[in-house]
Amino acid sequence: MLTVDGLGVRAGSTELVREVSFAIGPGERVGLIGESGSGKSLTALSLMGLLPEGVTATGRATLAGRDLLGVPERRLKRLRGRDLSMVFQEPMTALNPLMRIGAQVAEVMTLHGRGRREARARAVELLGRVRLPEPEHLARAYPHQLSGGQRQRVMLAIALANEPELLICDEPTTALDVTVQKRMLDLIAEVAPALLFITHDLAVVAAVCERVLVMYGGRVVESGPIREVFTRPRHRYTEGLLAASRLTPRGTRLPTISGGVPAAGHFPDGCVFRNRCPHADAQCETAPALTGEGHAHACRHPAG
Ligand SMILES: Nc1ncnc2c1ncn2[C@@H]1O[C@H](COP(=O)(O)OP(=O)(O)OP(=O)(O)O)[C@@H](O)[C@H]1O
Fold this sequence. Notes:
The protein has helices spanning about 40-50, 75-80, 90-95, 100-110, 115-130, 135-140, 150-160, 180-190, 200-210, 225-230, 235-245, and strands spanning about 1-10, 15-25, 30-35, 55-65, 65, 85, 165-170, 195-200, 210-215, 220-225, 290, 295. Helix 4 (about 100-110) runs parallel beside helix 7 (about 150-160). The protein is of the alpha/beta class. The chain folds into 2 domains: about 1-235, 3-Layer(aba) Sandwich (Rossmann fold), CATH 3.40.50.300; about 255-304, no CATH class. Strand 4 (about 55-65) and strand 5 form a beta hairpin. The protein has 11 helices and 12 strands. The chain is globular, with a radius of gyration of 20 Å. Bound molecules: adenosine-5'-triphosphate (ATP). Adenosine-5'-triphosphate binds next to helix 1.
């Protein structure tokens, strides 16, 4: 249903995402993991046609046969919020503070041709579907009257309003506390028609997704069913991610990395696994960071 083939993203002459290919079938939930700066968000934003100015995508991506890359903005506007939609990390910036919740959920439907009255009624229905209490009452509230978790549910209701074929979530629960996070993740797993779920948290991806793609330095370096990737990681970077995460796959020992590299959260400060390049990010050549000598920072940006 979603097919991405040879996706590349660049800013000027700098390649930020390279040769990314994957597919998501109907009903499938796929995680996209990788450290900060590995290209997860740019991959998602390319599919949504929402790349920042000066950043361009190449390659091919289709959703149910419809092209997503290199198509005019007018066409993308029709697809966005209808065929595919996205939930971002910070709902407060996405919601209009001056508009009632119900009206904001209804708006995405009227923009795509639904009658105003019908859209209002369905907005209340959707607020109930994302398990918000007293949806009729809540529809009349403003964003600041809701908790962070409630606002994120509103964003999910907006994303689902036109029954999209694919939902993309970019760190949707990072700002929420743990119990709220868990309920939100369960809800996303339940209601998503098909899902691309971006996170740096391996435990979250294991809870929500069936398959995972691991990004490193702008490329997908590994992919497969969660159980397989998390219990038998093939790429050293995935091993590093697992070792540094709070996730210990059931039935396995915490992976250790060969070559004298510290395991299980012992990466020193400045490690490429934890931090972005301290120099200009975009020029950092993030080659595999583990060497025979152990841990190494892979930034090849000239010192100073
Ligand atoms: N507008 C831009 N111009 C130039 N470089 C950019 C731009 N936006 C992002 N980048 C760079 O592209 C790389 C990938 O960024 P991206 O936001 O996709 O990473 P990410 O994996 O989503 O990270 P995070 O988990 O921190 O959101 C980073 O090195 C980032 O600095």
